[in-house]
Amino acid sequence: MKKLFLLMMAFVAGSAILFTSCNPDEPTDVEPTISFKTGADYVSTNVTVEAGSVITIGIDADANENSGALLTNLNLKRAFGVQTTLWDTAINVNTFSIVFDLTTFPEAGEETVTFTITDAEGETAEVSLIITTEITYQPLNVWEDVTLGDQDSQFGSSFASIDGTTYSLAEAKENSDKIDFVYFYGATNHSTICAPSADAAAEVFNNPTTGVATWTKRNATKFMATTTTVDEFDAIPADNDTQVITLATGADQELINNLDQDGAPVVLAFETETLKKGLIKIQEIVVGSGVGTPGHILITVKVQQ
Asked: CA distances (Å), 245 to each of 27, 162, 251, in order?
């Protein structure tokens, strides 16, 4: 009897093992999937680019086939040093695709970009890459101690930042495509730097043969008042245009007048029609006895090549 009992117990145990081993394994892979889009149009691996440039990153995500849990959220995290930017969007789908045009940080360094997908069961998956940003410095043109006369002066009133040349009115007409600004002294505007495209330039330089209105090209230079100091201007190296780019910002104006009101020295910014940025240090302002008598300004210009 005892032997029979032991045999029955062995049979039950063996059957349990048999039935257990026959049960299908529970699925262990229950996470959603996420991947970068690939191809020539997309960044999908670690990359080195110019600071402040735009890159395109695409994301594809799918619900897990085993769990069937819908995708519910996509999160984007951008980490550059201590700076962190977060973005997310709520979804409720089986598959999800999205494309981002990301502007990289304007500084040199490394940024980690991480995308995380979450499903209805709270399961997550993520992908990430590193964007290394570099700043490519370009040299400046530096034109020092340039005398720019007003409309009554023996000195030329028209300036070309591309080569640092000052032109008389007749010469400026022949080289109008080069002229970025003119200088004059007006009854209302007083000491003024002005774009050739401005009406004021044509009104002051109104010679019927060589006046601004007769020029083939009247460049629409933009000027900006700045808080840049003379010391800051002087410290800008000639082999690095990044500071000029940074400082040449502000409200665009076709002319800046009344320069003699506050006097020299003062630093102005400008942007040429060809999108070259520059700074003008006005070192000296000489005003005649009024309109009709000669005057001039002395300037130094630092401008992108």
From this structure: 58, 16, 15
β-sheet bridge partners, residue 128: 114
Alpha-carbon distance of 15 to 261, in angstroms, equals 104
- pLDDT in the model for residue 137: 86
Q: What percent of the chain has pLDDT over 70?
A: 90
Q: Give the model's pLDDT for residue 150.
A: 95
Report the predicted TM-score, pTM, of the whole model to 2 decimal places: 0.63
Every domain of the chain and the residues it spans: 33-134, 140-304
Q: Which long-range contacts (CB under 8 A, 24 or more apart) does 211-215 make?
A: 211/169, 212/182, 214/173, 215/172, 215/173, 215/176, 215/179
Q: Is residue 220 exposed (0-12), middle (13-18) or buried (19+ Cβ within 10 Å)? A: middle
Q: What is the rounded CA–CA span in Å between residue 123 and residue 142? A: 60
Tokens at 224, concatenated: 């900006």
Is the CATH code 2.60.40.3880 the one for domain 33-134? yes
Tokens 């070309």, located at residue: 160
Q: pLDDT confidence of 288, banded at 50, 70, 90?
A: confident
